[in-house]
Amino acid sequence: MSLSILVLIARFSTGVEATNRTKLVLRLIHRDSILPLPYSEAENDLRAPLVPHGRGLLFLVNVSIGEPPIPQLLAMDTGSPLTWLHSYLCTGCNPPTNRAPIDDPKRSSTCTSLSCDFKYQCQQYLGDTDCSQESFRCTYNMVYMDGSYTKGIIASEKFTFDTSDGGISAIPDLVFGCGIESHGVVVRLSGILGLSNLNGHSLVTRVGKKFSYCIGNISDPYYMYNQLVLGEGAVLDGDSTGLDIRNDQYVVSIQGISVGEKKLEFNKQEYHYNVLIDSGSTFTYLQRSAFEALKEEVVNILADSMQLEIIEGFEETPCYRGDMVRDIEDFPSVTLHFDGDTKLRLNVEGMFHRIRSDIFCMAVVVSEDETNTIGVLAQQYCNIGFDLNEMKVRFSKIDCELLED
Ligand SMILES: *[C@@H]1O[C@H](CO)[C@@H](O)[C@H](O)[C@H]1NC(C)=O
Ligand SMILES: *[C@@H]1O[C@H](CO)[C@@H](O)[C@H](O)[C@H]1NC(C)=O
Ligand SMILES: *[C@@H]1O[C@H](CO)[C@@H](O)[C@H](O)[C@H]1NC(C)=O
To answer: What positions does the domain Peptidase A1 occupy (predicted)?
Structure first.
């Protein structure tokens, strides 16, 4: 009840800030729909298929930072504990190496860098903050799996969201990172909207420890119904499975994998609370025991009809010459079974990925470390709801368009 009232207020009072609102419905903007592209076509490494640990970071959220608010597109990442932006976008936070001129019109009046007085917030991050010296600031240092990193200071700032119902919603004093130095693919993003942090100052905690996102057809950059809901409106449908946070990442347990009716044999212990749900990873990564079992099944099923191709650099992944849509349309669905009788079904578009017009490969690849990851290809046509009070996650296969109100 109270929720629909909130929506109405937001709709009829466009331009009036509803601070402290706990329902945010945000459109997820496909990276490839933005012109000019945040990534240059020439530097192809993010788009190239099968980059080991490639950060997919396909979906952007339009967030305005500071006062006056300046819109930025931040990549939504369930695998990042910290929201951060490059320091040229957080002028006003006054990082020591990036003093904006006092009369810079873009300079935000609402940013404050956290001093060591905020020891609690500082200690949540990984930086080498030395609070024994009065003048030191709270710092962070985030290193991503592909070796990209960002370092900077922890600050607090007002974040304003344009909600998809036409309202705006401001969250004051959100703790975030102002990135002074960064390296790797993250340089080409404005920043990251990190969703895997449950400390009292993070975005997901401030909106009420619930969020959900729905992703439709990733191959269609103009699909309009991809969305992120933060707070009370989060869509928590479907059977739930236990969720935990390990190393700042959301993890679940895979109990079984089936291809059609056939259950695969693998070492289940390796998957106990060791499967990341990552909106920043394109592919699904499995440790060798399940990867080999799945690969063998795929190779067997396609042995008669398709020609196996060896692609240099990715010899472990089965690749085929042909047209993914036409030739393997009726490939049996692959199901990940989680604790609690919860399932995630991967159709052809979740299991395979076209790497050239005439070659496609399995989109489940072998993990190079001791973790497993469910990437965004596997999350297509699915709503994923995180309930962080109960520490449960729910998957439901759905047409995201149906969630529009
Ligand atoms: C982001 O939001 C701003 C402010 O509402 C708007 O002007 C801009 O067009 C939006 N950008 C995109 C890509 O939607
Ligand atoms: C909303 O504001 C009240 C007081 O203004 C504060 O106590 C409460 O923590 C805020 N809630 C959120 C979710 O920020
Ligand atoms: C997804 O989008 C691509 C590109 O627009 C299209 O070719 C494909 O048919 C779509 N897939 C489905 C299942 O709608």
So the answer is: 59-396
The CATH code of the domain that includes 342 is 2.40.70.10
Which range marks the domain in which residue 145 is found?
A: 6-231
Residues 6 or more apart whose Cβ sits within 8 Å of residue 314: 50, 361, 365
Reported as a pLDDT band with limits 50, 70 and 90, residue 116 is low
The response to whether residue 168 sits with its C-beta less than 6 Å from ligand 1 reads no
Instruction: Examine the domain organization and report whether 249 and 173 are in the same domain.
Output: no
Ligand 3 center from residue 237 Cα (angstroms): 25
372: buried, middle or exposed (CB in 10 Å: 19+, 13-18, 0-12)? buried
Residue nearest to atom 14 of ligand 2 (CA): 206
Q: Is there a contact between 61 and 35 (Cβ–Cβ < 8 Å)? A: no
CA distances to 50, 223, 352 from 363, in Å: 8, 21, 5
Q: Which burial class, exposed, middle or buried, applies to 247 when counting CB atoms under 10 A from its CB (0-12, 13-18, 19+)? A: exposed
Give the model confidence (pLDDT) of 12-65 as tens digits.
Answer: 223 334 444 567 889 999 988 885 544 433 333 333 333 333 456 689 999 999
Q: Are strands 249-252 and 382-387 parallel, antiparallel or unpaired?
A: unpaired
